[in-house]
Amino acid sequence: MEGLRGGGHGEAAVDGGDERWVEDSSVDYQGRPPLRAATGSWKAAIERLSYFGLATSLMIYLTKVLQEEMKFAAKNVNYWTSVTTLMPLVGGFLADGYLGRFSTVLFSTLIYLSGLILLAISQLSPRLKPERNLHLHETLFFVAIYLVSVGTGGHKPALESFGADQFDDGHAAERVQKMSYFNWWNCALCAGVLLGVTVIVYLQEKVGWGAAAVVLATVMAASLAVFLAGWRHYRYRVPEGSPLTPLVRVLVAAARKRHLHLPADANELYEVKPQNIKRRLLCHTDQLRFLDKAAVVEHDGGEERRGAWRLATVTQVEETKLVLAMVPIWVATLPFGITAAQVSTFFIKQGSVMDRRMGPHFTLPPASTFAMAAIGMIVAVAVYDKVLEPYLRRLTGGERGLSILKRIGVGIAFTIVAMAVAATVERRRLRSASPASMSVFWLVPQFLLMGIGDGFALVGLQEYFYDQVPDSMRSLGIGLYLSVIGAGSFLSSQLITAVDRVTSHGGAAAGWFGKDLNSSRLDLFYWLLACIGVANLVFYIVVATRYSYKTVMAGGKVVDDKAGDIECAAAAAAAAY
Questions:
Q1: Fewer CB near the terminus (10 Å): N or C of the chain?
Q2: Closest Cα partner for 375 from 194, 119, 505, 106?
Q3: Where does the sequence pass through the membrane (predicted)?
Q4: Residue 59 to residue 515: CA distance in whole angstroms
């Protein structure tokens, strides 16, 4: 059954074996098979909170301190967000193939720290303040925040995948815990967001960016110490070289044997015996069958022709199919990334020009309006994990209440509604006799809807790209998830440029983006995003309904994915043989 039709996604438990030991390919800190009771699980997976004070305040800082125009500031924020969320592709590749996830977290955190320290210096040193030397201050500021981007490139994919590695997919209880892990990981991130957009932003507004950077650097250093303190209790994955090489070998082998005929029986395709290796084997599928030729055994003069670039296993072929099948899903989620980019740019800018007074003595900082999106996400994730998913599990009888792709689709739908609501609110603000007197709490619905949408779509994307990639490239999988947001931010910048050029007739007239919000037509831009979202949702549904999930075979048994329902009897028979 296709991706959107399934009711569950978990793998059935594999019976047998000594449950005291973890039987996947992980090791403990001494390189031995991990003892289940002493390593992994939640004790090792709950890590530091993430701080979004820098990201949410960046738009305000660029426009007020560096005096950039709104459209240029929005593009700079989007470029920085793009780099921050695309760098994890590099970090994930290094973590999976060469450095290992633990080492990548360590080194990237040190780079992250250096960026925060440089940011503090650029704010606290009298000679580097913007009123003394704006150009030098601007240069150091951008170097600092891009060092944070580079650090994030290794930190985000390696830390999240390292946390998920603490759960054994072959153990029923830990497999269910891993499903909740992604939910509560994001709750922890949202708790960090709340601290970042309240406490940190308040420090930026009332004390200064330097003080806020010092606090962030201190907390980051403390979190690194906590992370290192648990090193004896972690489960580690040993890097095995480039995770992309086996995929390229499959493509080369299939191309070399393109003139061969595929056997009628899939049992004749080459695969190693399950008892000879520790890694999980995948079942054969009928998708992208031309790649199956890589697993066809050639005979030359009665002898088999082998070699890494001439013969691949069924598992390697299926892993290549999985990666190729992700491309349409990745493309179909890009408009969601474009929509998500508006929260930290135009949503925040809207809040800055509205009435933010909360009583006679307190004014809400503009970036703190982002807290409403974080609250929406926390509520959505908590309700889903504790109420909706258990109910759907009982209803369907599966381990997973809602298939991953269904969950992503629901989140995309929420963000489309959020754009429509945002357009309506902005239109009302523009038509108001006094736009500045309109309460900032009119933005609550659009922030909450975006937060709820993130609670479905973002968590679903994280789990999808972690779970459906080959086991050897799971950090890179998290990097692929983050690249959706990064590419979405980049496309948002390009869309702003294109819309501005078209609506202003090349600068000859007033377009949708003026020098400030009151001279702009942000409401029309939001409606454009909503229309793009609706068209894309139709495309996403078509792609998702044709998707087949990963199906694993372990110990001669088919560990079937109920959300995919892929027939795998031939692979099971081969393993049994």
A1: C
A2: 194
A3: 49-66, 78-99, 105-124, 184-203, 209-231, 322-347, 367-384, 404-423, 443-466, 478-496, 524-543
A4: 14
Query: Smallest Cα–Cα separation from 373: which of 469, 454, 448, 261?
Result: 448
Q: DSSP letter at 439?
A: B
Q: What phi and psi, each to the nearest 5 degrees, are found at residue 282?
A: -105, 150
Angle between helices 334-341 and 522-545 (to 10 degrees): 150
Q: Which superfamily is assigned to 23-52+99-238 in CATH? A: MFS general substrate transporter like domains (1.20.1250.20)
What tens digit of pLDDT does each residue of 472-503 get?
A: 888 888 888 888 988 888 899 899 989 988 99
Query: What does the pLDDT read at residue 255?
Result: 93
Contact 240, 472 (CB under 8 A): yes
Phi, psi (degrees; rounded to nearest 5) at 490: -65, -45
DSSP 274: G
Rg of the Cα trace of the chain? 25
Neighbours of 222 (CB within 10 A): 11
d(CA 74, CA 54): 14
Characterize the bridge pairing of strands 303-305 and 298-300: antiparallel
Closest CA to 198 of 371, 402, 432: 371
Q: Which long-range contacts (CB under 8 A, 24 or more apart) does 136-141 make?
A: 138/66, 141/66
Q: Which two tokens stand for residue 414?
A: 């929420």
> What is the domain partition of the chain in residue ranges?
23-52+99-238, 243-318
Residue 31: left (phi > 0), alpha (psi -120 to 50), or beta?
left
Closest CA to 43 of 230, 236, 190, 183: 230
Task: Measure the CA–CA gap between 95 and 115, rounded to whole angstroms.
Answer: 21
Task: Please report which confidence band the pLDDT of residue 238 belongs to, taking 50, 70 and 90 as the band edges.
Answer: confident
pTM: 0.78
Per residue in 155-179, pLDDT (tens digit) is 888 888 888 888 877 777 777 777 7
Angstrom distance (rounded) from CA 140 to CA 222: 25
Least confident of 111-115, 132-136, 412-416: 132-136
**Which amino acid, one-letter code, is at 100?**
G
Tens digits of residue pLDDT in 271-298 = 887 655 667 888 888 888 999 999 998 8
CA distances from 540 to 6, 469, 531, 535, 549 (A): 16, 19, 14, 9, 16
CA proximity to 537, closest of 424, 447, 456, 416 = 416
Residue 305 phi, psi (nearest 5): -100, 115
DSSP alpha helix (H) spans, 333-442: 334-341, 348-352, 371-383, 389-396, 404-431
pLDDT band at 9 (very low <50, low <70, confident <90, very high): very low
For residue 178, which of 385, 382, 350 has the smallest C-alpha distance? Answer: 385
3-state secondary structure of 557: strand
Non-local CB neighbours of 76 within 8 Å, separated by 6+ positions: 58, 62, 68
Confidence of residue 464 (pLDDT cuts 50, 70, 90): very high
Mean pLDDT, to the nearest integer, of 512-528? 89
Unique residue bearing structure tokens 């929420």: 414
Q: Which two tokens stand for residue 417?
A: 């509604």
How do residues 391-432 score in pLDDT, each as one tens digit? 888 887 777 778 899 999 999 999 999 999 999 999 999 988
Tokens read off for 335: 């408009």
